[in-house]
Amino acid sequence: MRMSGTRYAEIADDLTQQIADGRFAVGSLLPTELELSARYGASRHTVRSALDALQGLGLVSRRKRVGTRVEAARPPDRFRQSLTSVEDLVQFGEAHRRDVQDVAKVIADRALADELGCELGRRWLRISSLRWGDAAKPDPVGWTDVYVDASYAGLGEAVRAAPGVLISHLIEEMYGRRVAEIQQDVRAATLPEAVAGALGGDAGAPALQIVRRYADAAGAVFEISSTLHPAGRFTLSSRLKRQAG
Amino acid sequence: MRMSGTRYAEIADDLTQQIADGRFAVGSLLPTELELSARYGASRHTVRSALDALQGLGLVSRRKRVGTRVEAARPPDRFRQSLTSVEDLVQFGEAHRRDVQDVAKVIADRALADELGCELGRRWLRISSLRWGDAAKPDPVGWTDVYVDASYAGLGEAVRAAPGVLISHLIEEMYGRRVAEIQQDVRAATLPEAVAGALGGDAGAPALQIVRRYADAAGAVFEISSTLHPAGRFTLSSRLKRQAG
DNA sequence: CCGCCTATTATGTCCGGACTTATTGACGGC
DNA sequence: GCCGTCAATAAGTCCGGACATAATAGGCGG
Q: What is the dihedral of CA A70, A71, A75, A79, to 10 degrees?
C-alpha cells in the first residue's frame, strides 16, 4: 500500500492491515522477526521498529523466546481522559501548545496561512492567522471551522505559575466566555479526503483524532480537534470549532 | 543510580536524574547524541534508545538538526483514566491479569506465598495463596492488606466472550459483592522502603503507582494498587485492599 | 540591507552483525 | 511417571557504520 516513505512505517502499516483483515488471527503468533526480515527484505532492526509501533498501539505483545502475539485486531477505538487535576491541565496545556505549533508550521508551509492573515495579538496568546470555514455553507449542527495558526510565545513561565489558565484564556480571547469544563477524547480515525489532500497524506490512512472540548457555564461548547499520525509522529491538521450556546 | 543491568536503561535513568536535579535545565538542549555516546561510552544507537524512553515519559522532545530539548524536570505526576467502554474493560482486564501474574511470580520466588496457602478454587479465578495484613494492627482508615498470588488459568476465551466480568468476578469471589463502578489512577511515586526491601529494589527509586478502584452499588470500595517501574518493565508489588462499606 | 543559495550539523532511518537471556521442549536419571 | 538438566530458539540488547533529511547559519549577490 501507500506510505510514509519510511520502511518501518510501511511494514507496520502492512502488518496492521493483515491483522485487521484476519490474515494473522488474534491470539496467534506472528512470524519470527527473522522471518519477517526475510519476507520484507528489511533488517531485523527495521522489523523490530515496526513491531515497536504495533506494540505501542496495543496490537501485539512480545515475550522472549516465545514470539510476538497478536493481541487485538485493531487499536482501542477510543480512550477518554477527563481533565480535573492541576497536573492534568499543565500536561494538557503543554500538549496542546505543541500541537498548535506543529499545525501552525504545516499550515504556514502550505501557504494556507496567507489566504487571510488576521492578528489577534493579546497578552499571552498570539494568533497570527486564521482561516474560517465557508460561512455561506454553515455546518448542519452549527459548527464553524477555523484553521488556526497560533503560538504561545513567552507563555511557558506563566503557564507553570498559573496552570489551567492557558486554554481558558484562548477561549476567552476568541469568544469572551469563561471555561467551566474541559474534556478530551482520543479515538482512532482515518484521514478525511479533504485533510489528506491539503496536507499531503493519504486519504483513508489510519490516524488518531484528538478532540478537546471546552464548555462554559452556560453550556456552550468549544471544540478543538487534531488529527495525528497513530505513532504520534506528526500533527496533520487541526480545527477549532464553535457551537453557539 | 545503578540499574536494571541494561545499558540504555542505565543511561536513561542517569539522564532522568540529571534533569530532575536541574543539571540539565528545562528548556535547554541536551548534549548531542554523538557527545552522549562518547560521554557514556555507548553507541549512538544505545543512547537513542535511552532518549526514546525519556521522550516516552515526556521529559524531552527532539527536532531534527536542532537537538534534544528538555521539556520537563519530571514526568507528569498523575494520569487518570475512567473506564467506561467495553474496550476499556477488556484492555483493563488484560493488564490486570498480567499484573497479578507477575506479582504472583515475585511473591512465589520470595516464598511469601508459603506462609499460608489458602485455596479459593472457583470456576474461573484460582487464587492459590493469600497473605493477609496484620489483623491485629488494622489500617487507620479501615483497609485490609492482602497479598495475592492468583492466576486466571483458562480464562482467556471467557474474558473475550464476556468482557468486564473478570474483575467483577474477582470481587464477587472474595467478598460476595457486585461491582458497580471501576476507576483507575496512575501516578508517579517512589518505592516505599518496605516494598523495596522485600522485592530487591531501591527505596526511593522512581516508580509508577497504579490504583484500581471498584465500588459496589452500596458504595463499598475495593482497591488494588500496583507499583510499577516507570518504564513499565516489571511489576514490583501489588496489594489488595478492602474498605468496609 | 534584504533575499537567495549553500554548507553544516544533529537527528531520522536503515543495515548487518554479535552476544545475551528467557522459555520451551526433549532427553535422561531416579 | 516425575523431576532436573541441557540444548535449541526467538526476542532483547548493543555495536559501528552509512546515508537521508531538515533546520540552521553563513556567504553571496543584488
A: -160
- Domain spanning A7-70, CATH class: mainly alpha
Distance in angstroms (rounded) separating the CA atoms of residues B23 and B7: 21
Q: Which residues of A touch B75 (CB under 8 A)?
A: none
Strand D nucleotides with an atom less than 7 Å from a protein beta carbon: 8-18, 21-24
Partnered with residue A189 across adjacent β-strands are: A207
How does pLDDT run across A20-71, given as a tens digit for each residue? 888 998 888 899 989 999 898 888 898 988 888 787 666 787 877 888 888 7
As a whole number, mean pLDDT of residues B69-78 equals: 66
Catalogue the E-assigned strands of B75-205: 78-82, 126-132, 146-151, 179-190
- In this complex, the answer to whether residue A46 has its CB under 7 A from any atom of chain D, a nucleic strand, is no
Alpha carbons A225 and A232: distance in angstroms, whole number: 15
Q: How far is the CA of A53 from the C1' of D19 (A)?
A: 23
CA-CA distance, A98 to A235, in Å (whole number)? 9
Contact residues, chain A, for B84 at CB < 8 Å: 80
**A interface test, pick of B78, B155, B233 with most A CB neighbours within 10 Å:** B78
Q: How confident is the model at residue B210 (pLDDT cuts 50, 70, 90)?
A: low
The three-class DSSP label of residue A76 is coil
CB contacts of B80 in chain A (<8 Å) are 81-82, 84-85, 88
How far apart, in whole angstroms, are the C-alpha atoms of residue A166 and residue B29? 25
CB of A55 closer than 8 Å to CB of A61 = yes
Determine, for residues A88 and B80 on separate chains, whether the beta-carbon distance falls below 8 Å: yes
Cell representation of residue A33: 522477526
B42 Cβ nearer than 7 Å to chain D strand: yes
Answer positive or negative: Cα dihedral of B123, B126, B130, B132. negative
Q: Exposed e or buried b for every residue in A6-34, given b needs 16+ CB within 10 A?
A: ebbbbbbbebbeebeeeebeeeeebeebe
Tens digit of each residue's pLDDT (9 = 90 or more) over A118-133:
222 222 223 333 333 3
CB contact under 8 A, A91 and B58: yes
Reported as a single tens digit per residue, the pLDDT across B144-155 is 333 333 333 333
Q: Are B236 and B207 in contact (CB under 8 A)?
A: yes
Type and span of the H or E element at B240: strand B235-243
Stretch A78-95: mean pLDDT? 35
- Going from N- to C-terminal start, the domains of chain B cover 7-70, 78-243
With CA atoms as reference, the chain A residue closest to B85 would be A78
pLDDT of residue A30: 92
